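look at this one:
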Amino acid sequence: MKSRMPNIQYYRNYPESAQQKTLKYLCSRAALTEWGTTYKLKDITNQRQFQEQLPLQTYESMYPSIERVLKGEKDVVWPGISQWFSKSSGTTNDQSKYIPVTSQSLSQTHYKGGKDLLACYFDNVPNSKIMAGKSLAIGGSYSKNPYQENSYIGDVSAVIMANLPTWAQFSRTPALSDAVLSDWEEKLKVFAEKTGRQNVSNLAGVPTWTVLLVEKMMKDYQVPHMLELWPNMEAFFHGGVSFVPYRRLFETYFPSSKVRYMESYNASEGYFGIQDDVNIPELLLLTDHGIYYEFIKIEDVESTSPKTYTISEIQIGQVYSMVISTSGGLWRYMIGDTIEFTSLSPIRFKIAGRTKHFINAFGEELMVDNADRALALACEATGAIIKDYTAAPIYLSEGKKGGHEWLIEFVQVPLDKDRFVQVLDQSLQALNSDYQAKRQKDLALIAPIIHIMPSNTFYKWLKNKGKLGGQHKIPRLSNDRTVLEEIKRLILD
């Protein structure tokens, strides 16, 4: 792992150089593919030319080509045949997205990103002993690709686990066959049975699903916290959703300052960021991992021809929508995730949310990052611990002002609900000037309306949707009331 640090230091210090090399590699490697010849990739010598020759893409515009790759055609968007595909399912609809995972994207992006996360961890914690214990990764599952022989489709975590080298399988628990079980409830049972007495030193997974495993294990083994079962627990490598609302909850599961939390940003489409410093919560942008980045200002996303910015043009404090080109064959692909840069040297950022996951019914432009941080402050002020939440607008109607309605499931309810609402509202105003302007004298928005949900409400909604486990998660914010009304009906039924 120490051997990775000079490489990490290189792209920390010279991100523009790393990106130029990445773009050159992608264009030359894919020059003879169908997309390469169509868009004359071999002639591209600079970033501006790349932007001019290739149009921006959505999943819908790329799908005809991806479908052909899915069916076994070679040299379409990337050289050769792709035998693995990560399946990404939207939280607000039932459409599945199939993202090719090539051998290059596995080695250059996903594995390299994982190695760099570990290298940074050991650099931060030189006396670490996590390699003396077992690693427990809570991921999804995979199945055969019905369109192509010897090909598989699954959650990106399962695709990664299935392709790990043999030596890595010995350091994990439980066995791979158990780790990729498709029945989530059966998986929880097996994990609890087989790992409760193992020497687990580190966890990796989405906080939402890790909470369910931990709670089951504490109940099954009748222990007050997880250090009774895993005394050598040292690190939780998390991603998928913001850890801000979950931190206090995990500190009750693992009540020790020796347990550290490090975030990574690994999606179906690629590995984008890692927390390289345990004392800095923002993520380091991975600029040397087979991904070329462009960015669109969030206010320009709906434009017919939005301007894209390279990493040399980005600004601190501006929210951008990410555009990626990858060694998996995605070209100028608008992934739908939004980030905000917090540092330019090195380039660090925080995840703002999804381009479709926000509330802007009244010009308040409320992003997920605002909501997560405000909820954390409200919890701190009232002794509450949150498990899950979602929020949506209350539309204006005759004689009534608009607002935001929140459905929140607590592990520990606030001591004073009114105080919780007050701090949430005040924190949102402090974090978001647009929200503050609309709240002045209840001008356009009334104070938030909070409903405390029964235990396992969100779990039941995901189960009804067939979205248990893996990368599936509750949409935190929605600009319409579809999800919120579905969950409310579930409670009434």
User: Anything to note?
Assistant: The domain at 1-355 is CATH 3.40.50.12780 (Rossmann fold). The longest strand covers residues 333-344. Residues 103-124 form the longest helix (22 residues). Residues 90-94 have pLDDT under 50 and may be disordered.
